[in-house]
Amino acid sequence: MKSQSYAVKFKKFIQYLEGQGGDISDPLLEMRFEKLFCHTGGNEVNHIMAWYDTQREKVTMGVERIPLSECREWSLDHESGSFVHSSGEFYRVDGIRISKSTSREVSGGWDQPILTQVGYDGGILGLLRCRSKGVPYYLVEAKCEPGNYNFIQISTTVQATFSNLKRAHKGAQTPYSNFFLDTEKFDAKLIFDRWMSEDGGRLYNKRNRSMIVEIPEDSAVEIIDDRYRWVSLYSLMHLVANHDAVVAPHIRGILAGV
Questions:
Q1: What is the mean pLDDT of residues 184-199?
Q2: CATH topology of domain 3-62+121-257
Q3: What does the alpha-carbon distance between residue 219 and residue 200 come to, in Å, rounded to a whole number?
Q4: Domain boundaries along the sequence of the chain
Q5: Is the CA virtual torsion 56, 61, 64, 69 positive or negative?
Q6: What is the pTM of this model?
Q7: Residue 51: strand, helix, or coil
Q8: DSSP secondary structure string, 68-93?
Q9: pLDDT (tens digit, 9 = 90+) per residue, 66-97?
Q10: With the CA atoms of 201, 180, 241 and 44 taken in that order, what torsion angle do they form, in degrees rounded to the nearest 10?
């Protein structure tokens, strides 16, 4: 679909809302419009799924279960009783005791291990937004994680803990993280910025900073690897609704917020 068609349709959408007495000052209004129609041609979802399947076929990561005692750089801290990383970063495996749980299945409480993020604030989950001929696109990653279903999930541009962003792992810098850490440098506009909580059954008091940052259309963004791809918001919503276990929970959380 031509970019003019997108602009015309969006203008008509605004005019319709005004006629209905709707709030057109909402900064997320355009994103809600993007969800309604395919603005990029009818085959985008098929192309994304072909790309996703290709990324799955390229996975070389191997995962095997080993005893906790054999995890390199991880050990039991006898003073706290927690399982911790040698850097003091990332997360801990703590033991907790729950009591007076009258609203739950086990009313008398229970004991369980739980993951505690160091500092509680996990990290940044960020989507980079940029326009091509006026139409907004979002940079996603086919991200490989050891616990992922099918290894690969379509995730945010940046999915990194603050420990990773500080490079506590002594590895490489998280790609594209500078767009979210220094928006002014890139003349970027912060579209969405919310602290979102995580699953409290397995993670203790954890939250992540979910962000959508838009950079100017003429920005030079190098695609450093073919695991990254620009996609439309409509296609992301279609994938969530129509394909099993393809889109990662972090990006679903952001989509729910807009």
A1: 94
A2: Nucleoside Triphosphate Pyrophosphohydrolase (3.90.79)
A3: 39
A4: 3-62+121-257, 73-117
A5: negative
A6: 0.91
A7: helix
A8: GGG-TTEEEETTTTEEEETTS-SEEE
A9: 999 999 999 999 999 999 999 998 999 999 99
A10: -150
